[in-house]
Amino acid sequence: MSLSDLDLAALVRPDSVHKRVYTDPEIFALEMERIYGQAWIYVGHESQVPQVGDYCTARIGDQHVILVRDTDGGVHVLYNRCAHKGAKLVAADEGNVGKSFRCPYHAWTYRLDGSHLGAPLKNGFAGTCFDPADPAFSLRPLARVSAYRGFVFASQAADGPDLATFLGGAVTSLDNFCDRSPLGKVEVAGGVFRVLQRSNWKVFYENLHDTMHARVTHESSVAAAREEAKALGGMPFELHIMDGNGEPYEFWEKLELRAYDNGHGYMEGIFNPGAAERDPLARAHFATLEAAYGAERAREILGMNRHNTILYGSGSPHTVFQQFRVIRPLAVDRTLVEIQVFRLKGAPEGVFRRALLYANIINSPGSNVMPDDVEVYARCQEGNGTDGGDWISLHRYLGTDREVPGGMVSTNGTSELPMRNQFKAWRRYMAGEAAAGRGLHVA
Ligand code: FES
Ligand SMILES: [Fe+2]
Predict the structure, then answer these.
(1) Is-contact 241 361, C-beta < 8 A?
(2) Atom of ligand 1 lying closest to residue 119 CA
(3) Nearest ligand to residue 83 Cα
(4) Which residue ranges form the domains of the chain, and what is each CATH number?
(5) With CB atoms 3.0 to 4.6 Å apart as the test, which of 144, 200, 237, 426 could cross-link to 155 if both were Cys?
């Protein structure tokens, strides 16, 4: 059965959403066109390609793309497709191609901006309309590429808001992410954790601000942290961050959730070690920022305490612990999460080591915490595959969220505002109010 725009709009109500949005392959295919074909999507960080010819590969929805550093210092995002017979040009996650790309099939070559450089035995093209200057014989660039403080995004749509406008109030999280460096710069370091989730991509975005799940889903890891702390006679950082999920409901109710257009938002922080004056590492970090920006600004930077930020379609940067969980949908029931950890340039090395520790303890495939989440996501996928019911409830604190300049704020931290906000954007993308991507027209 083919879905009309009316059908799509009917799947999202103000207080609930139909389970088909998580389980229907046809809807997933449409999401690749109407959301990933339009939105600004995070490709990678400029620090991943520091030298001329450095590249890394990524996915924008179902599209394979290459981020590459050119000779003039700029970066490009190109579709990973040779213009001859369409071979995927580079297959590795990252590498260096030197001064040009060379296709592994028949050796067509391309400059780092994707333009056609050459093909063997040129005489063979004599008398044909083959024209190296014709873009059809070059690598196709993404319609728009834009970087915000080193975070490179691309859009497959030629038209639409610029990147900063698209990100709205959530862009302040990228600012704070970088401002925590005394040089205002960050770099990807320490490798990438990869987690393959057996669930739809939207489930993860919803869970990022789902404060009601923490003390329930993570009951066992909280109990383990508390037992271990008892045995040790104290709670070191590693256990403290695991224990945080066990806070009582009253704690979560007091947190603030922000929601912005296009599904973005952020959640107020749980821990803020950088602002803890008793902590020697926090003091050392503060000193580097104070020297760079002055004490008042340094306090402001480290005092900004955010937990997960949502850049809908791209993933979730975490400003306090310098990681970016990049979310790549693979299929209606498969999602790849790639966790990048960043070093704050010029900050004490201990801050980076703490970020690594956080990623290891909380989010890595080997952590005690993240598998709790992945298990419930898979259960949602499996449960929604049954005939046991059709709708997902998003009723909590509906109608109580307040408007603030540029967005909405929860009056209670357990509000399902973030999920309602994501589906408001989803409905707009999918049911016709934002239709310019990849030449797709939605009436
Ligand atoms: S497919 Fe790339 S050169 Fe032939
Ligand atoms: Fe969780």
Answers:
(1) yes
(2) 3
(3) 1
(4) 41-148 (2.102.10.10), 169-430 (3.90.380.10)
(5) 144
